[in-house]
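Um, can you check?
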Amino acid sequence: MTPQTDPQAGAAVKAADRAHVFHSWSAQELIDPLAVAGAEGSYFWDYDGKRYLDFTSGLVFANIGYQHPKVVAAIQEQAGKLATFAPAFAVEARSEAARLIARRTPGDLDKIFFTNGGAEAVENAVRMARLHTGRPKVLSAYRSYHGATAAAINLTGEPRRWPSDTGTAGVVRFWAPFLYRSPFHAETEQQECERALQHLADTIAFEGPATVAAIVLETIPGTAGVMVPPPGYLEGVRALCDEHGIVFVLDEVMAGFGRTGKWFAADHSGVVPDLLTFAKGVNSGYVPLGGVAISGAIADTFARRPYPGGLTYSGHPLACAAAVATLNVMEEEGIVEQAARTGEDVLGPGLRELARRHPSVGEVRGTGVFWALELVRDAETREPLVPYNPVGEANAPMAAFAAAAKERGLWPFVNMNRTHVVPPCTITEAEAKEGLAALDEALSVADEHTV
């Protein structure tokens, strides 16, 4: 698809947006949204015909890229057959989507509860855990994001929680492992793992194991920084949950469906949670869909006891048809394997080479097409390029970096002092190298703010 220029249409789109659209996470008068005319594959473009390589995959959901013809056709076909239907009925697209998802989830997570997105999936996973155990508390990590609905935002560890934190949601937070900024003064991955697990064990002990319903973890934290857990950590959390009868919930909303080079990030360790939340990549965000994959033991809790939860659009036929097509395309085209190769052969080596040449890059971490660069003012002290949760002028160095990337046709995912590299799983080697070249130039702007 060739971008066409139509500045007048773009101006009309922007005017209507500014007049009527209330944007999330934003001070409405301080934003200037780009008017997007179209997208295909790894790129999108504006009404002036400027094309951007998308290193964000939307919000880390366009795993198979934009406008995949087979998924678009499946949505069109489903709309002609049965555009919508209530969730209490057995519908072909819904049944097949659940079957295909259950085929890929680890262990015995064979029952699928559909939601409209990731936050609702987390809400329902927490509700299931509390009802299954009869316990009130849920533990979550400080460096985490689980969604913007009531329970999910209270579980979240990063600053977007603060304005909505009730302080009474039954949530207890703990430090998960992150060696680069270790809260445990660890010097090796093994030390970080051991000390993080001891910290979690102590937290459980002092909170009272019989009061803890669930531990909720992003298998690999996404927005909070793409911190791949050290070997043995998830296994250790699983063991603590087993010891105390705690439900282990893995949040794979961002990490699932090929993003890490496996169908699920849990597959890297072989750990099987009791509940697994998903969304985003399940159908590349073409139609809103999320869900909870449920273990046999928890499903049995509700075999003769009604589960008190549901949504009008749960398992919407259009969304499920998109999921069926997406999962089939991922298998037919080897997209999960492609993501693994891209990470191992192109992105990993390329990003580490950038780190060697740019003093602003303190650390590179990630796997598959799920990476983050930690940007710093001082590589020795690891002082972040901008402060934690910066606003206004304090964020100027990261704003300058992002602007430089966009000028070069690269749309970056920027959060605090990090830039994440999270393109579609289908990105080609040539496209990835194009993005790395633009990133190389943009990092020179970040370098100007180092000491």
The longest strand covers residues 370-378. The two ends are 45 Å apart (CA to CA). The chain has 13 helices and 16 strands.
